[in-house]
Amino acid sequence: MQELGKQSKQIKMIKKPMIMAVLAMFFFYGAVAQENLSIDLQTAKEYALQFNKNIRSSALSVQQSQEQLKQAIAAGLPQVNATTDYTNALGAEISIQFDENMPASQIPIDPTSSFNLRVGQLIFSANYWVGIQSAKLYQKLSEKNLQKTERDIVSQVTESYYLTLVSGESLRILKTNLENLGSVYEKTKPMVEFGVMEKVELDQLSVQVNSLKNAVNSAERQFEMAKNMLRLQLGVSADTSLELTESLQSVIAAGGFEQTLDNGFSLEQNIDFQLMNVREEMQKKQVDMQKANYLPNISGYYSFTQKILKPAFDMTPNHVVGMQMNIPIFSSGERHSKVKQAKIELETIRNEKELLEDQLGIQHKQLSFNLKNAVENFENQNRNVEVSREVYQNLQRKFNQGLISGLELTSADNNYLKAESEYLQASLELLRAQNELNTLIGELK
């Protein structure tokens, strides 16, 4: 009980006081006006832990399991019940004939009323003690489920935060590129009018500008979709204005990817494995519960009865003390079958546990491999985008000097945008790979 209590307190006290104050202020102002959130990744995690609806439901399940434990304990404590009754025979009489030569005597049935107080106490029941232990394990299971829900939500918030950063960066690059290409288009117009360049080059630039406008519109929709997903996971309304205070570059720079790869993996730190351990313990108690059905149950009681309206002839005692023992003798194999079924279920869970161990080991190996590949791919794409940017900037200067045509600049622009897109995709894959590995090894904070 003390260990479970400590775990519950630790779950409730994971929020920092300073963060809690900030979140409370956000929540207060959101209740009276449109909420404006300017958050970094860590604050987003703390906010989700406080306001996410799924976490709230899991926390309520923990409270429910606590009440169920109290209910299980109370079943073995003294039970006090009181009853009162009133009986009226509506003038009926009892006919008694003491001698066949004598007329029968008529005895009226008087109205009666009584008050009864009964105190019951369970003395011995193996099912009761096993039931309490099972209720404790159920409470532990609900707490582990809360931790799993928190882990999953934090992981989802992290990924949505990354996706929003990448979407915002993609939108920024496209808008900047559209402005630059629009400027090139405006500079090309007079050149075509004066015959310095052919009209086909202006048309090619026009097509490229229109394509970029469509790409900007698509990027805006994707950016808003990413923010909506983040709003849902944070537990805020759709009208909440979100501003991410970190840039994609700063998040990657502080990534610590090599350290993530160096972190060891322990099954005991994985919440899914912990849940499987609790399931195994609970099934062991189910086996004990079925075995307990072979043992007797003993209970005692005290009864006090007070007649309010007494009949003429009353033999009911005021005080009664008793004891009852229920001894199971023969059930035609029913109890034996239930024990066997519980043992089979226990073996099934143990088999699932061994399978989970293998799966987690393989998953850790694969996710580590994915992160290593993502790091290498990101480094390659980072070099590619730098080269593409330099080429595009050089060709743009040459175009401004009239040394190259607009078609050459358009081709370089396409290559640069492709490199930027691949770089952003590599960045997202890198951050996702790290988040998935951290989720598995339990390093989410």
Descriptive notes:
It is built from 11 helices and 8 strands. It has 445 residues and is α+β, with helices and mostly antiparallel strands. It has 2 domains: 2-74 and 125-293 and 328-441, Outer membrane efflux proteins (OEP) (Up-down Bundle); 75-89 and 109-124 and 294-327. Strand 3 (93-96) and strand 4 form a beta hairpin. Helix 1 runs parallel beside helix 5 (126-193). The longest helix is centred in the middle third of the chain and has 68 residues, at 126-193. The protein starts with a helix and ends with a helix.
- How large is the count of helical segments? 11
Low-confidence segments: 1-34
How confident overall, as mean pLDDT?
87
Order of helices and strands: HHEHHEEEEHHEHHHEEHH
* CATH third-level topology of the largest domain: Outer membrane efflux proteins (OEP)
Shape: elongated
CATH homologous superfamily identity of the largest domain: Outer membrane efflux proteins (OEP)
By CATH reckoning, the class of the largest domain would read Mainly Alpha
CATH architecture of the largest domain: Up-down Bundle
Strand order of the largest sheet: 2-5-7-8
